[in-house]
Amino acid sequence: MKILRVRMKEKGVRWEPVPKEYEQLGGRALIAKLLLSEIPPACDALGPHNKLVFTPGLLGGAIVPTAGRLSVGAKSPLTGGVKEANAGGTAGDTLGKWGIKAIVVEEQPAAGDFSILVVDGDSAELVPAADVRNIGTYATADRLQERYGEDATVISIGQAGEYLMSGAGIAATGERDQRSNHAARGGLGAVMGSKGLKAVVIKKALGRAVRMHDDKLFRTACKEFAQALITSPKLGVKGSQHLYGTASIVGAVNEMGALPTRNFSSGRFEGAAELRGEKLREIILAREGKVGTRCMPGCVIACRNLFTDRTGKPVVGTVQYETIGLVGSNLGLDTLDDVATLNYMCNDFGLDTIETGAALGVAVEAGLAKFGDIDSLVGLLRQVGEGTVLGRMIGCGCVTTGRILGVRRVPAAVGQAMPAYDPRALKGNGVTYATSPQGADHTAGNAFGARLEVNPLGAEGQKELSLKLQIIAAMLDSTGLCLFARPPIISKPQLMIDMINGIYGWGWTLEDYDRSNREVLRTELEFNRRAGLTRNDYRIPEFMREEPLPPHDTVFDVPDSDLDSVFDTL
Questions:
Q1: How confident is the model at residue 177 (pLDDT cuts 50, 70, 90)?
Q2: Is residue 209 part of a domain?
Q3: Which of 183, 266, 380, 458 can bridge 261 by disulfide, Cβ–Cβ 3.0-4.6 Å?
Q4: pLDDT of 126 above 90
Q5: Which domain CATH number covers 398?
Q6: Percent of the chain clearing pLDDT 70 (strictly above)
């Protein structure tokens, strides 16, 4: 395998062999190690010393179901610490097939000088981006696929990334008509914009395959893993994830009183029935949209959808739970058409729907729009694409919006907006939000699936649960697996070890596997420590400790001593 170094100031590219210290790392693990080794942790996240990394997981390019996710990482302009975000699409699979361990983007050009990186196997070049400047991610993908081929992968930023808004994400195309897979969290789109990189185009790896060390070992484990997913009551073709997508949990989260409502002022939304996964499926099928499609080659879960308007015209793919929670109930919107409208705008501008939904909620509380009024919300969001002062405020996320507008109730931890689970009603998630080196991120260790194991309303047992979940999340993010594929691996970790050993021949044991997963978190925590983050940064906002959340009227009461000791046994 090889690493592609891209020097944006010099407009040069260089291939190099993978350093020994990076050989057994992929995805999130590689990002953490590379950032700690190669950049000053206290550097300006939008300055020349930060680096932007694109990397597949350890299983990328192989035929493992759901293992084609692309990890993107850098120092975050939101959290001030390490950040990895991952996306579906074809990028992770294609990089793996080309044998590219990582693309590392370094330095900065002159302000306003944007380029496109084009990668075709062993060749790569930077070309001018003049014809895709100041346009959204959809038009960017269309133009570049017209130029380089419909089967080329396009990774791009929209206007938010070009304007260096810290709520900006990175879009990646997928199979056929997919143009909106997003590595959305942490402001990585702003980092990409700061590098003067509008897009990365990766040509399809025709006829390429990952070379196996032990094909039989790999295929036996891979087949068992795939079969476990296919026959799963939840993940198989008759399961809720396939039928309704991630929106399948809207009703359950609302019932448990954790659904963000009107800027996190309640955990139950009266209009939730109109936002449920069942309603989403009903509308999509009635309008001849698509449900049960996949976001990555070879995925057997297929939880994606394509939402259409009343005339059957595609609006956005895909409408997911987090977006429903943050730009739906959190803004008092109770129709999926309104959610899809804001979802499309965020995708096109290149914005994280979680960060942007939270910022809009704060802005509404300050009186700039009205809860439930789609026209006023569209008017606010449109200003992001126009680059107005107000738009730049919203585009920089909920913490910036709260500071400028003087709003105390800002739902964020470690500088990043909270996902669609209020931590006062799902306290395990609160521990993860407050302690994860990734900031408030549901994919860093989501306790929703363990709500029957540990009482979500109680403080007891939450720190132990969060640590366990954070270790699992680090493993998934480092191998390129989707979070939904974790059940077979958790119940039989030998499957993961056999797939890795089958590809690479490392001779990993269960102990090696566990050590590598824990080391990801250790490395990230060390980076954040050197970047200047302290215990006081790893906290839940004060208003959530004092303001009871209806309907259970609970506050976040996990002691600071528990938050400070989460990683004591790491």
A1: confident
A2: no
A3: 266
A4: yes
A5: 1.10.569.10
A6: 100
Cis omega (within 30 of 0) for bond into 318? yes
| Nearest C-alpha neighbor of 482 from the set 136, 232, 154 | 232
- Give the C-alpha separation, 358 to 344, whole Å: 16
Return the exposure string of 325-349: e unless at least 16 CB atoms fall within 10 Å of the residue's CB, then b.
Answer: bbbbbbbbbbbbebbbbbbbbbbbb
Angle (deg, nearest 10), helices 427-435 and 462-479: 60
pLDDT band (50, 70, 90) for residue 256: very high
Q: Write the Ramachandran bin of 186: left for phi over 0, alpha for psi from -120 to 50, otherwise beta.
A: left
In a domain, 391, yes or no: yes
Give pLDDT, residue 302. 93
Confidence of residue 270 (pLDDT cuts 50, 70, 90): very high
Give Cβ neighbours of residue 466 (< 8 Å, ≥ 6 apart): 428, 431, 432, 435, 445, 447, 566
Q: Are 120 and 203 in contact (CB under 8 A)?
A: yes
CA 558, 560, 565: angle at the middle one, nearest 5?
A: 100
Q: pLDDT value at position 232? A: 92
Is residue 269 assigned to a domain? yes
468-504 pLDDT per residue, tens: 999 999 999 999 999 999 999 999 999 999 999 999 9
Note if the bond before 551 is cis, omega within 30 degrees: yes
- Secondary structure, 3-state, 74-137: EECCCCCCEEEEEECCCHHHHHHHHCEEEEEEECCCCCCCCEEEEEECCEEEEEECHHHCCCCH
- The pLDDT of residue 238 is 87
Residue that finishes a domain, picked among 202, 224, 259: 202
Distances (CA, A) of 354 to 10, 185, 412, 485, 501: 35, 8, 11, 23, 37
| For helices 277-286 and 336-349, angle between their N-to-C axes, nearest 10 degrees | 80
| Spatial separation of the C-alpha atoms in residues 364 and 344, rounded to whole Å | 20
The residue to which tokens 């997928």 are assigned: 174
Distances (CA, A) of 190 to 77, 194, 234, 482: 8, 6, 36, 25
Task: Quote the CA–CA distance of 260 and 139 in Å, as a whole number.
Answer: 32
Residue count of the chain, please give it: 570
pLDDT tens digit string along 431-456? 999 999 999 999 999 999 999 999 99
Q: At how many degrees (to 10) do helices 27-38 and 462-479 cross? A: 90
Q: Are both 254 and 129 inside the same structural domain? A: no
The distance of Cα 370 from the centroid of its chain, to the nearest Å, equals 28
Stronger pLDDT, 292 or 176, i.e. the higher one:
292
What's the whole-model pTM score? Answer: 0.98
CB-side neighbour CA atoms (13 Å) of 25: 23
Dist. CA 570–CA 359, nearest whole Å: 34
CB-neighbour burial class of residue 238 (10 A; exposed 0-12, middle 13-18, buried 19+): exposed
pLDDT in tens, 195-216: 999 999 999 999 999 999 999 9
Q: Reduced to 3 states, what is the DSSP secondary structure of residue 222?
A: helix
Tokens of 275: 């936002």
Domain housing 66 = 2-202
Residues 350 and 461 in one domain: yes
